[in-house]
């Protein structure tokens, strides 16, 4: 019966090691949320994004057909201009709930003035019952 006891101890050790490994996996560094916004004449996609107060987000702008830009001064994004086929990533961490308009920051044609979108910032809600 000695053999089976050793086997049981070994099995328990393996189980503990597996639990420890899983616990490590469950605590990674907090990942920054990523959102890609494509731009083409004359729209952003998505044109509406939702963020949380205090949650950092990396926004990547990817123009598809021409040079386009992105500006949202109320959220501290001054002016980003990116050529077609390239991309640029900028981080935003909203501090206040609200609806913020963003728009193209580079004249891209006659529809440029209507090339807009909105960022909806909400506070983190406590989970409901
Ligand atoms: Cu434009």
Give an overview in words.
The protein contains one helix and nine strands, in the order H-E-E-E-E-E-E-E-E-E. The protein is elongated and about 85 Å long. Strand 5 (68-72) and strand 6 (77-82) form a beta hairpin. The strands form three sheets. Strands 2-1-4-7 form a four-stranded mixed beta sheet, with no helix packed on it. It is of the alpha/beta class and 129 residues long. 17% of the residues are buried. It folds into two domains: 1-29; 33-122, Immunoglobulin-like. Copper (II) ion (CU) binds at residues 68, 104, 106-108, 112, 115.
Summarize the main sheet. Answer: 4 strands, mixed
User: How many individual β-strands?
Assistant: 9
Q: What string gives the helices and strands in order?
A: HEEEEEEEEE
Q: What helical percentage do the residues reach? A: 10-25%
Domain module tally: 2
Question: What is the top-level CATH class of the largest domain?
Answer: Mainly Beta
Give the secondary structure arrangement, pairings included.
Layout: H1 2-25, E1 33-40, E2 43-45, E3 48-52, E4 57-63, E5 68-72, E6 77-82, E7 88-92, E8 98-103, E9 116-122
Parallel strand pairs: 1-4, 3-9
Antiparallel strand pairs: 1-2, 4-7, 5-6, 8-9
Residues 68, 104, 106-108, 112, 115 line the site of copper (II) ion.
């Amino acid at each position: 019966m000695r053999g089976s006891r050793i086997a049981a101890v070994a099995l328990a050790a393996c189980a503990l090691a597996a639990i420890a490994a899983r616990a490590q996996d469950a605590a990674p560094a907090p990942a920054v949320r990523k959102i890609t916004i494509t731009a083409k004449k004359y729209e952003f996609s998505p044109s509406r994004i939702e963020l949380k107060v205090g949650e950092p987000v990396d926004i990547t702008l990817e123009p598809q057909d021409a040079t386009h830009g992105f500006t949202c001064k109320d959220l501290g994004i001054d002016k980003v201009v990116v050529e077609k086929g390239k991309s640029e990533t900028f981080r935003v961490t909203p501090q206040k709930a609200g609806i913020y308009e963003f728009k193209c920051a580079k004249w891209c044609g006659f529809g440029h003035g209507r090339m807009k979108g909105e960022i909806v910032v909400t506070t983190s809600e406590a989970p409901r019952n």
